[in-house]
């Protein structure tokens, strides 16, 4: 697989996992709201820091978030490996554009409320831009 194909693959993985992580974060947020019994935050700094750490750890143990997060991080490692062989002026626009397009399409596929016409038109422009960068 050539560098451009790897860049597109990484962008696709990033985009799809972004949408799935958003859904996992919403699940975590619902759990957080349903388990909250105290309406106010503790006033002492160390208690607030422990509360934030507890919330962050609860997010990481929510598998709907953590599994796509690990896949996303793996794609990031692959991206840095590609940067060693490819010009950054090509790698960054191709992967970022592909990520934006894949995020829009996968969010629509997951049923998120979007303006479908604008999303598809933007995705078409992104695909055209990536094609111009590669050629």
From TrEMBL:
Which InterPro entries does the record cross-reference, listed alphabetically? TMEM234 (IPR018908)
Q: How does it sit in the membrane?
A: Multi-pass membrane protein
Pfam families given in the database record: TMEM234
Provide the alphabetized UniProt keywords. Membrane, Transmembrane, Transmembrane helix
Where is the major localization of this protein? Answer: membrane
Compartments annotated for it: namely:
Membrane
For this record, the Gene Ontology CC terms, alphabetical, are: membrane
Span-the-membrane segments of this chain are: 63-83, 90-110, 116-134
Extract the Gene3D superfamilies matched here. 1.10.3730.20
Query: In the UniProt record, does the keyword Transmembrane helix occur?
Result: yes
- Listed PANTHER family: TRANSMEMBRANE PROTEIN 234
Q: What is this protein called?
A: Uncharacterized protein family UPF0546
Q: Which organism is it from?
A: Macleaya cordata (Five-seeded plume-poppy)
